[in-house]
Structure formats: structure tokens, C-alpha cells
User: Which sequence fits this backbone?
DNA sequence: CTTGAGTGCGTACATTTGTACGCGAAGCGT
DNA sequence: ACGCTTCGCGTACAAATGTACGCACTCAAG
């Protein structure tokens, strides 16, 4: 029955690193759909299209699986962020760009956002995940700081983190204009002062 | 064995609202300690010092329990926030006060903070919790906005939310001064402009 | 072709879990 | 005082889960 599939799948040779990676990816997908506590060996195996024994073989314990999966998700996220930043023209309107970024994260990339916050909160209860979540933080801060100054960088990192979470949960989703106004206010200060551009 | 305790406990009469509340409180404690996925009927029963059947009686399903517990936790949080605000002198240094608030939340009130974020992220996967998490948001926004203007209120709410989460996870905890500088920067804008006080 | 090791996985088992059910005790109308 | 209804809970059961174990299959050496 499933022996056919299994046999065909098993053919992957004795030393297949893709297998492990595929399982980790599936775990991330499961997190996105059901949350951290939806991650079971069986759910991940089903999502990855591999048999149960495969997940337990490649990841001895569930915590290993979670750690690898979430670390990888965080790393991917950081990479994407850096890529986005380097693709941004130096004279771009930073506030508008950030608002765009947020909108992307609560729409097309909603799944990634969910995983990111799941990781974040899971780290509150699982020390092994601290490193990955801290990496995301550091990336955010360094990243926002590189376009402005360190203080503003931290400000934007915190704002981004909180705003994105609130936006992801808000029932009438905030509009691009609202988000942009917030970033503008954060970067340039109270409106009354100067019209700087 | 536990019959003695159980009998003594059962004596609580037929219509004991305290029972239900105690279970909810215990559930919150379990969330604080083990996270959302640590909330099982048995764990909550143990934490509340009530027998297993009691939890299943007062809360038909686990989701009910979670919903009530987290809603209550959020409500309590909002109440505390409002109290804090009304106890703040009108001419207080708002940035310093906010920094103080954050420091309190990542130290003495760390448990509440953890629960709050657990709730928040759990809401991403459980629609029934959306209302409670949205209530927290609204409270934050209204609350911060009442001291400044709506735009700054939203800015501070987002910043507070993100900053608190990052601070709760940061390994070398941020200092009061750092936090305060951030709020000051957020409220008054880039430092170069005016020394407004 | 045989054989030995090693890789990958199917399966079984003990545990934990959610939940339904039934029983005893308290209130209350008569 | 006596039944009847409702409340509260002890318990049992089925499903789900983590994990250990052993088998099949591949590959290379001889």
C-alpha cells in the first residue's frame, strides 16, 4: 500500500541531507498552521510526506526538531530582511518602505510572521530557542540602525516588532497609510517641528 | 488518600463561583510556567488543588478554559494598566514613567508578561482568543493616546508591545536608561531639535 | 556471489491526554 | 420526613503521542 511510496521514497540513497531539510521545512509549515503545540512527529511526517519513523530518525527528540526548524526559520527571515534592505535604494523613503514591509508581512508573508512570533514566545519557555529569537532581534536592530542611528534603530526595531504583531491580529487590518504615518512619526518626530524634505 | 481532601473540598457547597475562578487562576499560572501547550486538565487541576473532574465540570472543553483564563488575564492586565495611569501625576515625565513600567513588567511582573504574550500568539491560531488580545491592544492605544495624541498613542502602544517582548527575551536585560531613552526619542523626536523641558 | 556494516524506516508499546458517564451529596418543594 | 432535581466530582475509556526496537534494503569489500 504505502510500501510503494515508501520504497520509492526510500530509494533516496543512504545519505540524503535533503530528507532532513524537508522534514524541518515541514515542521515550520506545521507551526504556521497549528502553532507550536501542533508540532508532533506524526503531523510533521504527514506534512513532509515522509513516514513517521523518518522524523524520529533524523531528529531524536521533538525538541531537537523544534529547535532546528525554528532556528532555520529565523535565519531565513533574517536573510530575507537583509536582502530587502540591500535592495532598497539609498535615497528611498524609509518610512514608506517600512510600511510596505509590514504590509507584506501581514499579507503575503503572513505564515512567516506567525512562525516568527511563535518562535519568539516559545523561546520564553524553552531556553534552547533563545539563541534563534535573539538572532532575530539583533538582526532587526542592526538592520534598522544601519539606515539611521543606533537609537533610532532600536526604536524602529521595537516598533516594528510590536506593530507587526498588533497588525497581524487586528481585525480590521490597518492600512498602509496608518502604518506609514507611524513610522514617519517615529523617524522624524512630532509633526509640528520641521518639514524635512 | 485524596478522598479526604476531595471530600473536604467538595464541601464547598453547590454553587461556588470561587471554584471556577480558582481554576481559571490556576490555568493562568500554568500558562505562565509551561506555556499554552502545558495547559492540560490535569495540570490545571493540580495547580488549583482541585480534582480532575472539577476542571472538566466547570469548563466543558479545554478551549473554554483557555479562553476564560486568558480573557481574564488580559482584563486584569488592562485594569492594572489603567490604574497605573490614573495614579500617575499629570505632569510626570511620561518617558521615564513608561520605562519604569517596562522594567516592572520584565522583573516583578514577568509572569504576567509571559502570559500576555502567550495569549497574544495563541490568538494567532485560535480565533476565540482574538477578542481578548484585541482588548489589550485597544487598551494600550487608548491609554497611551490619552496622555499625548492619537498618533503618538499608537506609536507608543506598538513600541511598548515590541519593546517589552524584546526586553523580556534579551539575555543581558536592557537597562532602565536605555528604555527611557527610547521612549524619550519616540515621544519628543530626534534629539537634535529642541530641548523641551 | 557472499558477507558485513550501516542507513533508513515500519511498528509496537507505555504514557499522557481529552472527555463522557455515573454516583453520591446538597437543596427544596410537599 | 421524603422524593426529585441539580450540582460536583471520581473514574473509566478511547484516542493521540513520544520513543525504542528490529527489520529491510543498499553498498562495498573480499
Assistant:
Amino acid at each position: 500500500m504505502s510500501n510503494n511510496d515508501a520504497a520509492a521514497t526510500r530509494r533516496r540513497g543512504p545519505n540524503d541531507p535533503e530528507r532532513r531539510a524537508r522534514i524541518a521545512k515541514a515542521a515550520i509549515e506545521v507551526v504556521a498552521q497549528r502553532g507550536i503545540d501542533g508540532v508532533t512527529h506524526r503531523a510533521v511526517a504527514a506534512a513532509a510526506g515522509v513516514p513517521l519513523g523518518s522524523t524520529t530518525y533524523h531528529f531524536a527528540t521533538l525538541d531537537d526538531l523544534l529547535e532546528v526548524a525554528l532556528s532555520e526559520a529565523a535565519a531565513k527571515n533574517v536573510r530575507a530582511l537583509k536582502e530587502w534592505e540591500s535592495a532598497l535604494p539609498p535615497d528611498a523613503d524609509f518610512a514608506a518602505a517600512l510600511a510596505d514591509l509590514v504590509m507584506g508581512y501581514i499579507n503575503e508573508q503572513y505564515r512567516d510572521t506567525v512562525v516568527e512570533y511563535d518562535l519568539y514566545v516559545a523561546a520564553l519557555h524553552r531556553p534552547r530557542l533563545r539563541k534563534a529569537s535573539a538572532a532575530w532581534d539583533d538582526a532587526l536592530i542592526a538592520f534598522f540602525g544601519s539606515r539611521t542611528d543606533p537609537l533610532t534603530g532600536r526604536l524602529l526595531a521595537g516598533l516594528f516588532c510590536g506593530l507587526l504583531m498588533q497588525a497581524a491580529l487586528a481585525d480590521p487590518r490597518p492600512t498602509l497609510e496608518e502604518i506609514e504615518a507611524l513610522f514617519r512619526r517615529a523617524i522624524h518626530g512630532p509633526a509640528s517641528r520641521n518639514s524635512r524634505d
Remarks:
- Chain A touches chain B through 47 residues (CB under 8 Å).
- Chain A has a mean pLDDT of 88.
- The two ends of chain A are 68 Å apart (CA to CA).
- Residues 7, 10-11, 13-14, 40-42, 56, 60-62 of chain A lie near DNA strand D (CB under 10 Å from a C1').
